[in-house]
Amino acid sequence: MTADEFTAAQERMGLSRRQFCTRIGLSRRSGDAYALGRSAIPRTVELAIAAVEAGLDKAPAPKKPTPAA
Q1: 48 exposed, middle or buried (CB, 10 Å; 0-12, 13-18, 19+)?
Q2: Whole-prediction pTM value?
Q3: % helix / strand / coil in the chain, to the nearest 5?
Q4: Which residues, at least 6 apart from 2, have a Cβ–Cβ distance to it below 8 Å?
Q5: First-residue to last-residue Cα distance in the chain
Q6: CA-CA distance, 21 to 7, in Å (whole number)?
Q7: Contacts for 17 with CB less than 8 Å, ≥ 6 apart
Q8: One digit per residue, pLDDT tens: the chain, 69 residues?
Q9: What pLDDT sits at residue 47?
Q10: Which of 37, 49, 64, 68 has the most neighbouring CB atoms within 10 Å?
């Protein structure tokens, strides 16, 4: 993912940089570095963005299995 793609994802979501970073689990400082092209964007961040865009961050947590009696 490029810095331009990172910024485009933020814009598609209509979020400020701070909101975007919080939503994908980044510090604002890391988000700024990625958006400005100062740091390479890890695949994990790219996947986090894809998950948020797909709405997976709002999916209910899986139920824990109940212990056998």
Answers
A1: middle
A2: 0.81
A3: 60, 0, 40
A4: 37, 41
A5: 49
A6: 11
A7: 10, 28, 31, 32, 35
A8: 999 999 999 999 999 999 999 999 999 999 999 999 999 999 999 999 999 999 988 767 677 777 776
A9: 97
A10: 49
Looking at residue 39, its amino acid is S
Which residue in this structure is represented by tokens 């400005």?
Answer: 36
Q: Nearest-CA neighbor of 24 among 53, 4, 1?
A: 53
**Cα(10)–Cα(45) distance, rounded to whole angstroms?**
13
Q: What is the pLDDT of residue 25?
A: 93
Eight-state DSSP code of residue 58: G
- Summarised one tens digit per residue, pLDDT across range 36-50 is 999 999 999 999 999
